[in-house]
Amino acid sequence: GEAIKMPSYNFSPIGSSLYVQDVSDTAAGIGAANIPDGARYAEGHVRLASLSETREGTTPTATKGTEWDVEDMIILRSRDEITKFQAVEKTSTNSSIDWTFYNRAPN
Description:
The protein has 1 helix and 8 strands; from the N terminus they run ββββββαββ. It is mainly beta.
C-alpha cells in the first residue's frame, strides 16, 4: 500500500498564544502586543456575530471587506497578513475572534 505522507516538522500552536480579539463598530487589528514574535500563520474562530475583515491595509466597513459568520474560521497565511488584519462588526452586534498563532504554515 501507499505510505501516508506525514508533515516533516512539528506544526503546533505557539505556546500560550491564544488571543481573543474584540470586534466592535470601530475597525481594529489584532495589535502588535498580542502577536507572538515568531507568528507566521494564524487561525481565528469567529464568535458572537458576523464581521467584515481586510488584510492588505484597507480599513474594512460593514459593507467593505470579506464577510465571516459565527463559527467560520479565518486563516492568515503570513506575518504581513497577521499585522495588517483589521476587522469590524457587520451588524450592530459586537463580535470576537479567538486567535491561535503558529510559527509557520502547514504545507
